[in-house]
Design a protein that fits this description.
With 484 residues, this protein is of the alpha/beta class. Helices cover 35% and strands 20% of the residues. The two termini are 27 Å apart.
């Protein structure tokens, strides 16, 4: 299998926050991989911009070191690393003042695609957008990329959208969610809409329930100050899990183009029913075997912020009437694993004696760390002694299926940045989508605050609070184990 790489047009990409952790760990190593793959033209330029008092030579040295740190030796070619770094520029910039903007304006070409990545705090978005416009750096073909959080509630999301809209059209704004750049997430759409095997069964008649999990083994660490003002609901459910739910539940778009896809996702969000308090479990990891508690990590021994959320929700339309969607995310859990699990109903009539065992087809779409899909099917257990049934997996992992080409599959940030350059907004959130998500989430959070709700504790390395298991058992169901 040969990977087909299509080069993009020449471009200038400015990374505001170009010395930050995200730029060093994900954005620039990802761009290096695209450079090696032949997708970046020689005329492309990448410009780092930050407060740090660096020159271009110092920035090139920093990124050279970052590539060595975050890209495995087998995937590095020193000659190509040096060639890539020669294309980097740097400008010391004052986001809230005038320092560095004339130098920036002198670097940016008006006859190529201009993209501006706001890898900074949302409080700086408005100032950056204003100065790009004021100094004539941006034009009608420019694109801006903004990182989450997209507000912390509906009001602040509307304010943020309004600030960006003062200087850029919606078609120029790319709200990035790296989960949507994962190969398996996009394969979810291919599995649904390109295979007659699945789409006729993708409804309440055949599906019992759906589980969406995003589990982490890390705690809040050095992000305690930020995270304690956010929590799992704002940090993960409102964006990442909401997007996965939309792609799983949406109707087939008329065609695979940005607004058609995003229109269908918006319909899902607007169809979500309010969540009852007894259908939500909040958790907070506790000290365990020498590991600090969430409250210790956050520096607030009375904190009521959630590091874990599990909930049951419903999409109120004909396709999904009566089918529960169970969402779950948390930190310091048993394993790092993100997946979508589609559990189909039992056959309407049991022909075979199954010894009381329940046999169901289960489609597991694994997002990380081992991307792939697994379909559980029921077969006869080999050997004599009657018709005994067993469940076996039809397994497809990218690493095994693609073989030597598995390493060529772009990581999420690589794909999404190239989509920005191409002007393809399919995998990016629209402003009305963000606001609709907050409209659903806000009442849930306000309910917690009104009830003075306290998160349930759970051990580090566990499956989460036992209340989450109880919530499922009330419905006669069980969570899939959290394991990679």
């Amino acid at each position: 299998m040969v990977s087909r790489v299509i080069p993009v047009e020449p471009f200038d990409l400015v990374i505001f926050g170009g010395t930050g952790d995200l730029a060093r760990r994900k954005i620039l190593p990802g761009l290096y991989r695209r450079f090696v793959a032949g997708q970046m033209p020689k005329e492309a330029r990448i410009i780092g911009a930050a407060r740090s008092d660096l020159d271009t030579a110092g920035y090139r040295k920093m990124i050279h070191e970052a590539i060595h740190e975050f890209i495995a030796e087998k995937d590095r070619d020193e000659t190509l690393v040096q060639e890539f770094c020669k294309g980097l520029e740097y400008v010391t910039i004052d986001a809230m003042g005038e320092g560095g903007w004339k130098e920036m304006a002198a670097l940016i070409r008006q006859d190529v695609i201009g993209a501006f990545y706001f890898s900074v705090a949302p409080s700086l978005f408005g100032a950056l957008a204003e100065r790009l416009h004021l100094h004539g750096i941006s034009n009608d073909t420019s694109r801006i990329v903004v990182e989450k959080p997209f507000g912390r509630d509906l009001e602040t999301a509307r304010e943020l959208n309004a600030v960006l809209a003062e200087h850029f059209e919606e078609s120029q704004i790319y709200r990035i969610d790296h989960y949507l750049g994962k190969e398996t997430v996009q394969n979810l759409m291919a599995v649904r809409f390109a295979n007659v095997l699945f789409e006729p069964l993708w409804n309440a008649q055949y599906i019992d329930h759906i589980q969406i999990t995003a589990a982490e083994t890390v705690g809040v660490g050095g992000r305690g100050g930020y995270y304690d003002k956010s929590g799992a609901m704002r940090d993960m459910v409102q964006n990442h899990l909401m997007q996965l739910l939309c792609l799983t539940a949406m109707e087939p778009p008329s065609k695979f183009e940005p607004n058609a896809v995003r229109d269908e996702k918006l319909k899902v969000i607007r169809s979500l029913e309010p969540v009852e308090p007894h259908h939500i479990v909040r958790g907070q990891y506790d000290a365990h075997e020498g590991e600090p508690s969430y409250r210790e990590d956050a520096g607030d021994l009375k904190s009521r912020t959630d590091s874990f959320v599990a909930m049951k929700c419903h999409v109120a339309n004909w396709r999904w009437a009566g089918v529960p969607f169970y969402l779950r995310t948390g930190k310091k859990l048993a394993d790092r694993a993100s997946e979508i699990v589609v559990v189909f109903k039992e056959p309407p009539h049991h022909v075979f004696d199954a010894d009381g065992k329940v046999h169901r087809n289960v489609l597991s779409i694994k997002l990380q760390p081992n991307e792939g899909m697994n379909l559980s099917v029921t077969i006869k257990e080999p050997g004599p002694g009657g018709m005994r049934l067993m469940d076996v997996p039809l397994d497809m992992s990218f690493a095994e299926t693609l073989g030597d080409n598995a390493d060529a599959v772009p990581e999420a940030y690589e794909r999404l940045i190239m989509d920005v350059i191409r002007g393809n907004q399919t995998l990016f959130m629209r402003g009305d989508e963000v606001e609709a998500a907050w409209s659903w989430v806000d009442p849930i959070i306000q309910g917690w605050e009104a009830r003075n709700d306290v998160p349930k504790t759970y051990d580090v390395g566990s499956q989460g609070p036992t209340d989450a298991e109880t919530m499922m058992r009330r419905d006669g169901r069980e969570w899939m184990d959290i394991k990679a």
